[in-house]
Amino acid sequence: MNIFPISFVLSACNCGPDSNCTFSGLFQQKKCICKPGYWVVNGKCVGPCDEQPCQNGGTCNVGEIGFICNCVAPFSGPRCENGPCTSNPCQNNGTCEVSEYSYRCNCNKPFKGTNCEIECDCGPYGMCGLESGRKRCFCDSNYAEKNGKCEYCSCGENSKSCRYNLLGEKECNCSSAYAQNRGYCEDCNCGPYGSCSFEYDRKRCNCKSFAVEMNGVCVVMESTTLEGSTSAMTTALPLTTQCKF
């Protein structure tokens, strides 16, 4: 039987940093005296914070019963386990990242939005962006947005621009003396006293109140009373004549 010197036994008495270690009894048995809130496991004083229970950068403090986590904003919960990403707010397989006191979603294409909730794809002929939380297509030249995609849109060389309305119908912004007909800007001129349009593929002059249509042109009419007669004669003035009131 090997008998170790008492000095060796005393030097081997260690119960950890949060404890006092002594030997007692005839055989000088090791005894750990732990701080409040600690307990002995395998000859060591262990505490509730030894396993680092606080998550997300929280600091652990030993309480009267168990541990207390001091959480870093924006985390909360008994173990600081609750944060902005806990509820998985990012949709369509987006990944959530804590950003200061809130969160940020890293979205997979073609999704965008705060929670990756908007599918943002305008096709190969334009770029997709968000304005006030709504999808908007920025289309290439000769293309316009139609039903969420950039579709070919041309009204001919005599147009300023081409667009689609909410019903998906083409609308042409034609140059002066042209009007939309069958999806293209065609020659349409009623003179300076009226506007021109097409109706059922036929030219129509919308003349001002003091003019009438004559031979496809709006002309000013002047009434002249013949001397010694009660009848009146109406004369069409040239286009360059100004109307006098």
Would you mind describing this structure in some detail?
The longest helix has 6 residues, at about 5-10. Helices cover about 0% and strands about 45% of the residues. The strands form 11 sheets. The chain has a 3-stranded antiparallel β-sheet, with no helix packed on it. It has a two-stranded antiparallel ribbon with strand order 1-2. The chain has a two-stranded antiparallel sheet with strand order 3-4. With about 240 residues, it is mostly beta strands. Among the domains are: about 10-45; about 170-220. The chain has one helix at about 5-10, and strands at about 20-25, 30-35, 40, 45, 60, 65-70, 95-100, 100-105, 110, 120, 125-130, 135-140, 145, 150, 160-165, 170-175, 180, 185, 195-200, 200-205, 210-215, 215-225, 230-235.
